[in-house]
């Protein structure tokens, strides 16, 4: 009897796990920049040192406590040498100024296919101390993190080009400069006439300042960005009841499971999709790790588009770094993820956060794009290879910094479980068909490691040299977790 009860409980939990843990958002709207977000000078942040600069104090004082984005158009910083009266297109930015509180910065522009060849740097003022930081570089090569070409998400007129986001912590002042690739050096060189012309900067450059807001545990949209309820589409109608029921559990974290329980989950998740031979064969599924849900990190479900999008299966996992800097505490991670989520949706025009999962440097795993952690949710993480894959982003920058052992172990634990649900060996190879990237032409069948780095599908530095060098270890660990 005990065995029957345990098995029944396992099947019930597995069925719930396959469901999205968040209520579907209401209909999305196109993103003109709201007037309340576009202008900050009319409502400057308080001076550092006043009571409102503490997070708790300012949330009471400010009406936009659920999170907000300030979007500021950049201005020419220099004049054209040939035509002094005309502004230069080689350097834009904003002089030092006071703004509303924010914790994450990025730069966006109109054309998502345009590249920013140059350098983006920011300085920020700490809201608690009033101290200005030094200049910090913002990663400009970010076009490789995107929905696949020819998809509805990619074709949306809301999509913009963008830098990677940079986490700066609670700040109330900013200065930014954007310099074209050769423009700033040409100004400083006597033989500037011998240098190639600086590539023009993309049009419509804007500085995005993101305030993640406070985690209220059940955010459903702030006043500024609330949706008007409309007729749900067919997909939303199908999933609404199940999604809402699961969210009603108030789950902030999905509990870890032993390997034996995870194997029960595997059999319960897709009973009709398994052949008799597969049902009789030994499953290789790693123990399910604990996963913080979207509700757990405080996702505002009113931001994303309604419904969910799925691919057929999960054949590969692409590992990324967010390139958002390593200057965060693990206790700040929910705020950091809310900031990235808002940046992806409100600033870049995506339907949801791009990654399927995120991992912090303490090794904690977080649910990313909505749709159910056990399901093949279609992400926007590896341009050209989002179908039949999942994207795992380690929070931080790992070009010169080694990832923590905890983060590498978390990659292994997550992939051992999720890939195991789809009968995939983490140490194996697989084939994916390219939807088009700068490394593999559209339609090409590409042989990849099951656990690959972003740079294997696209010519990019991501996930950083130091993290990429740890993927072999993650593959071996994941296979051991699966019992191989």
TrEMBL record:
Segments for region (Disordered): 32-94, 128-158, 180-245, 269-288
Domain Peptidoglycan recognition protein family span(s) in chain numbering: 289-437
InterPro entries attached to this UniProt entry: Amidase/PGRP_sf, Amidase_domain, PGRP, PGRP_domain_met/bac
UniProt feature, compositional bias: Basic and acidic residues: 138-158
Signal peptide range in chain numbering: 1-27
SUPFAM superfamilies hit by this protein: N-acetylmuramoyl-L-alanine amidase-like (SSF55846)
Pfam families: Amidase_2
Alphabetic keyword roster: Hydrolase, Signal
PANTHER family xref list: PEPTIDOGLYCAN RECOGNITION PROTEIN, PEPTIDOGLYCAN-RECOGNITION PROTEIN LC-RELATED
Name of the protein in question: N-acetylmuramoyl-L-alanine amidase
Species this protein is from: Streptomyces violaceochromogenes
């Amino acid at each position: 009897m005990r065995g029957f009860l345990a098995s029944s409980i396992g099947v019930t939990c597995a069925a719930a796990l396959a469901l999205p843990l968040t209520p579907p958002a209401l209909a999305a709207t196109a993103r003109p920049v709201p007037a309340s977000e576009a202008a900050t000078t009319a409502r400057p942040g308080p001076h550092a040192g006043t009571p409102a600069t503490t997070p708790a104090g300012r949330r009471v004082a400010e009406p936009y406590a659920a999170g907000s984005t300030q979007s500021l158009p950049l201005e020419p910083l220099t004049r054209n040498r040939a035509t002094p009266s005309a502004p230069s297109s080689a350097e834009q930015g904003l002089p030092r100024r006071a703004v509303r509180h924010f914790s994450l910065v990025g730069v966006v522009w109109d054309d998502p296919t345009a590249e920013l060849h140059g350098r983006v740097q920011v300085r920020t003022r700490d809201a608690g101390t009033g101290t200005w930081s030094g200049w910090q570089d913002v990663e400009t090569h970010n076009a490789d993190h995107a929905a696949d070409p020819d998809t509805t998400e990619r074709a949306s007129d809301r999509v913009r080009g963008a830098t990677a986001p940079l986490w700066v912590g609670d700040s109330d002042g900013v200065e930014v400069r954007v310099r074209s690739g050769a423009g700033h050096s040409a100004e400083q060189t006597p033989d500037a006439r011998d240098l190639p012309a600086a590539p023009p900067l993309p049009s419509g450059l804007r500085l995005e300042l993101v305030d993640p807001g406070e985690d209220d545990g059940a955010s459903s949209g702030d006043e500024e960005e609330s949706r008007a309820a409309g007729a749900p589409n067919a997909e939303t109608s199908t999933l609404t009841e199940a999604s809402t029921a699961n969210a009603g559990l108030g789950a902030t974290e999905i509990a870890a499971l032993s390997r034996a329980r995870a194997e029960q989950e595997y059999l319960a998740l897709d009973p009709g999709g398994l052949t008799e031979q597969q049902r009789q064969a030994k499953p290789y599924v790693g123990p399910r790790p604990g996963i913080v849900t979207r509700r757990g990190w405080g996702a505002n479900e009113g931001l994303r588009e309604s419904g969910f999008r799925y691919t057929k299966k999960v054949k590969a996992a692409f590992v990324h770094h967010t390139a958002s800097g390593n200057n965060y505490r693990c206790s700040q991670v929910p705020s950091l993820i809310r900031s990235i989520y808002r940046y992806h949706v409100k600033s870049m025009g995506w339907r949801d956060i791009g990654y399927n999962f995120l991992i912090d440097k303490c090794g904690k795993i977080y649910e990313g794009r909505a749709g159910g952690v056990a399901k093949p949710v279609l992400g926007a993480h590896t341009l050209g290879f989002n179908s039949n894959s999942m994207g795992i982003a380690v929070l931080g920058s790992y070009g010169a910094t080694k990832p923590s052992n905890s983060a590498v172990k978390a990659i292994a634990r997550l992939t051992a479980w999720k890939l195991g649900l789809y009968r995939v060996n983490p140490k194996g190879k697989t084939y994916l068909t390219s939807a088009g990237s700068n490394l593999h032409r559209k339609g090409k069948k590409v042989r990849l490691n099951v656990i690959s780095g972003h740079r294997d599908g696209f010519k990019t530095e991501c996930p950083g040299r130091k993290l990429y060098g740890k993927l072999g270890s993650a593959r071996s660990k994941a296979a051991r977790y699966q019992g191989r």
